[in-house]
Amino acid sequence: MKKHRLNKYLFLTLIAALFFLCSCAHYQKNLPLTDIHQNKPYTFDAFNPEHLGDADETFVILTFSGGGTRAAAFSYGVLEEVKNTRLPGSNKTLLDEADIISTVSGGSFTGAYYALFGPRIFDDFKEKFLYRNIQKELALALLNPANWLRLSSPYFSRIDLAAELYDRTIFEAGTFKSLADRKKRPFLIINATSLYQGSRFEFTGSQFNYIGSDILSYPIARAVAASSAFPFLLSPISLVNYPYPDGYKMTDADKMALKDYWSNKSRYYNALNNTMYADKKGHPYLHLMDGGLADNIGLRAVNDLYLRGSLRKKINSGEIKRLLVVVVNAKNEPQETLDKNESPPGLATVALKTSTVSMDNYSFETVESIKKLFADRIEAQMNLDGCQQKLDEHCKDGYKLPALAGGKMKLYVVDISFDNLSDNDEKNFLKHLPTTFHLEKNEVERLISAGRLLFKDHPEFKAFMDEFK
Amino acid sequence: MEYLLVKFQESRGVIVDGISEGMTNQVLELETGFHTVTLEAPPDFTPELHEFILRKTSVISPRVISFEKA
Fold first, then answer.
1. Which of A251, A257, A383 lies closest to B33 in CB terms?
2. Is the CB of A251 inside 8 Å of chain B's CB atoms?
3. What's the DSSP call for residue B17?
């Protein structure tokens, strides 16, 4: 009897010890910077054509939206067609010219896989991701008793299980150093949303400098998990905001932007959001969720690069002759019955709807905003030409107006969405596909076909190709 | 966008807000707001730096700033 009681206590002690050990489970921490130049290999400037034997005359940017497997498959279809597009007069494909891929949520799986493994994506990505029932695999991981113990820790949550699954089965333990070591464009920008500010957070060396952290050692799978941490279903990815290493100082651009409250609020808030991390005591951690909460099409990163980043520098330096931005937007229109009932929807429906409605609301405006920027540039070029022509006609002294840096650059925006489809049945079918990490094979194939077709048939893409003739 | 013309007696790289960005005597396209502008080496020009707010410009009527040989 006494022995039996002893065994019982021993058993309970063991269980308690196991719980204690497992409750110490911790998410994989980002590491601190030890040197201010440490993140340079993962900045766009380090992916320079001078080093990479590439040219920037034709500059191609791809943006892949959120939308789970629907978005991943749709962007894969576009990527396939970009690969199949030969540029007249050269032995290159359009994909060889891809310089930047900016991704959100489901689109991050496709973008990151291509950036990490290159053309291999066309051999194995369907089996590795698109055809898989990731949702079931995540549910099974949650049902595993060993994980219950880990999940009992306040420092380990569902998103960490998801990141482990992605790391092991999709991204093969790849880190941002793996991307930097490839020394090959495209430069990948994975976008998430900072929960505190509600602003875009990108996984780049420049952004990690603000949080005093090393990006090179950070797993791509965790960045993709943050980018696709859908509200309610998944928890946020946490990062540590470390003290800066010796020699760190605020950039001149941020210093100037912080004076711009009255003159340029977009520039001001961009700098404010980034420099906020200098307050290490006030913000020792940051928590990231689905990139779609700040921008569901990945275009704001491009907008920022065009206004004030590396792209602006290249335009003003005259390196870019033609700029093509391909926006792949897998926005759906799920069949809902909200408006059919007189009684208002329940709390869960309202919570989910209000947390996701913003994801699609501003996508259209963001596309229009970049189109407007491009139109303004073309108009400026035309105004300058027009004025010079009048001067040449009416003034005999041969005065020449100063040239616009970058000259007569050509700009194209190819915005691809299901709405572009002329086949209404197919359009409705694709628009009604849910946002999930599991679709049937035939649904995946139809999305891929749609992506290919919509890219090939887009009038702006045709105009871009005509320029090569 | 706003437009800036940096005048100098020779063609020289322009540094805007600490970043190399285009050349002198060309119209540069920049964002509205405060900027600092200087030139690339050698440091044979004056003033060392211009700080100003760039707004209400157009491509045919850019903000003009000048550097002289020291």
1. A257
2. yes
3. T
| pLDDT single digits (tens) A313-350 | 999 999 999 999 999 999 988 777 778 888 888 887 78
The list of chain A residues with pLDDT below 50 reads: none
Are A403 and B1 a contacting pair at CB < 8 A? no
What is the C-alpha separation between A373 and A211, in angstroms, rounded?
Answer: 31
Min distance B2 CA to chain A CA atoms (Å): 10
Mutate: best of A317, A323, A391, partner B, most B CBs <10 A: A317
Find the closest chain B residue to A372 by CA distance.
B1
| B29–A312 CB contact, under 8 Å | yes
Overall pTM surpassing 0.90 (yes/no) = yes
Q: What is the pLDDT of residues A138-188, one digit of tens each?
A: 999 999 988 888 888 888 889 999 999 999 999 999 999 999 999 899 999
- SS3 per residue for chain A: CHHHHHHHHHHHHHHHHHHHHHCCCCCCCCEECCCCCCCHHHCHHHCCHHHHCCCCCEEEEEEECCCHHHHHHHHHHHHHHHHHCECCCCCCEHHHHEEEEEEEHHHHHHHHHHHHHHHHHHHHHHHHHHCCCHHHHHHHHHHCHHHHHHHCCCCCCHHHHHHHHHHHHCCCCCEHHHHHHHCCCCEEEEEEEECCCCEEEECCHHHHHHCCEECCCCEHHHHHHHHCCCCCCCCCEEEECCCCCCCCCCCHHHHHHCCCCCCCHHHHHHHHHHHHHHCCCCCCEEEEEEHHHCCCCCHHHHHHHHHHCHHHHHHHCCCCCEEEEEEEECCCCCCCCHHHCCCCCCHHHHHHHHHHHHHHHCHHHHHHHHHHHHHHHHHHHHHHHHHHHHHHHHCCCCCCCCCECCCCCEEEEEEEEHHHCCCHHHHHHHHCCCCCCCCCHHHHHHHHHHHHHHHHCCHHHHHHHHCCC
Burial A411-439 (b: 16+ CB within 10 A, else e): bbbbbbbbebbeeeeebebbbebebbbbb
Does A389 reach chain B within 8 Å, measured CB to CB?
no
Nearest CA to B28 out of B46, B16, B41 is that of B16
B70: closest CA of chain A, how far (Å): 24
- What residues of B are in contact with residue A253 (Cβ under 8 Å)? 17-19
Q: pLDDT by residue for chain B (70 residues), tens digit each?
A: 999 999 999 999 999 999 999 999 999 999 999 999 999 999 999 999 999 999 999 999 999 999 999 8
Instruction: Please answer yes or no on whether B17 and A401 come within 8 Å at the CB atom.
Output: no
Q: What is the pLDDT of residue A17?
A: 62
